[in-house]
Design a protein that fits this description.
2 helices; 272 residues
């Protein structure tokens, strides 16, 4: 049993070893930002988001990054069209204090931007989209990050399923650059950008073939869109490097083996 436990600890340590670089921001929606849904009577309901606080988070799996697509004296970037390799994870955004809509279709978030694959019993209506972009501009201490997703399918449960999202941020004048192309290492950044521009669009639509349900069969109908400016941007490695995890696992493994060796002498004294 102890040997099995040790093997499990080693396996868990390996699975946790991937380093994550996490970018977070706090911003404010600008003029024209809005949320929209349909009411139970089929009429459109719209809510302004101007002035609302927006929070975003996106994680970069450093070990899964492909080779940079562009490396020059001033610019380093990554771009993957498609979900392979999948190196942007846990992308989400949320809106502080958003009142929502009275019909209950609209959820206040957070809104994740992860792939929703076609189920085994489903049929793809449109080609899925999953674009990943990340880059730094060293001369301006700038960070560029963006993700776009789209999944549209139907199956016996959902007459229609559509999820589409865009999450993008360009921030300049930070405390440093998140990725150093000279060393190939990610590093911590924080601060108020001297300039920033961002955009969020999110839609989630699900319906069933039962028009007797409230909302004419709509289970969810969410739409958010707007530009924003970021007042705070941070970036940091939030998962220990592989060497750190192996040290922890080795220590736990040593404790397990030590207990195994001591076991018989303790039992002898108890029964003596």
């Amino acid at each position: 049993m102890n040997r099995f436990l040790l093997m499990m600890l080693m396996a868990v340590g390996a699975s946790w070893a991937s380093s994550i670089y996490q970018v977070q921001f706090v911003g404010t929606f600008g003029e024209g930002a809005f949320a929209f849904t349909f009411g139970t009577d089929g009429q459109g309901l719209q809510q302004s988001l101007t002035g609302f606080t927006l929070r975003g988070k996106i994680s970069i799996v450093m070990d899964a990054l492909p080779a940079p697509t562009s490396v020059t004296e001033f610019d380093t970037g990554y771009e993957t069209i498609g979900s392979s390799p999948l190196w942007l994870r846990d992308a989400e955004f949320s809106v502080d204090g958003f009142p929502g809509f009275p019909n209950g279709f609209f959820e206040p978030g957070p809104y994740f931007l992860e792939p929703v694959p076609v189920p085994a019993d489903g049929t793809s209506v449109e080609p899925s989209v999953y674009d990943q972009r990340f880059g730094v501009l060293e001369s301006l201490n700038a960070l560029r990050v963006g993700l776009s997703v789209k999944d549209t399918w139907t199956n016996p449960e959902f007459l229609s399923f559509r999820r589409e999202g865009v999450w993008a941020l360009n921030a300049q004048g930070l405390s440093g650059i998140p990725y150093n192309p000279l060393t190939g290492q990610f590093q911590a950044i924080s601060g108020t950008p001297s300039f920033s521009a961002g955009f969020v669009r999110y839609q989630n639509f699900r319906s069933v073939d039962d028009r007797t349900l409230p909302g004419f069969g709509l289970l969810e109908n969410t739409f958010i869109q707007g530009s924003f400016s970021a007042s705070s941007v941070t970036g940091e490695v939030v998962v220990p490097e592989p060497g750190t995890w192996w040290a922890m696992v080795s220590g736990l493994g040593g404790i397990v083996m030590l207990r195994r060796r001591r076991g018989p002498s303790i039992v002898t004294r108890i029964h003596a």
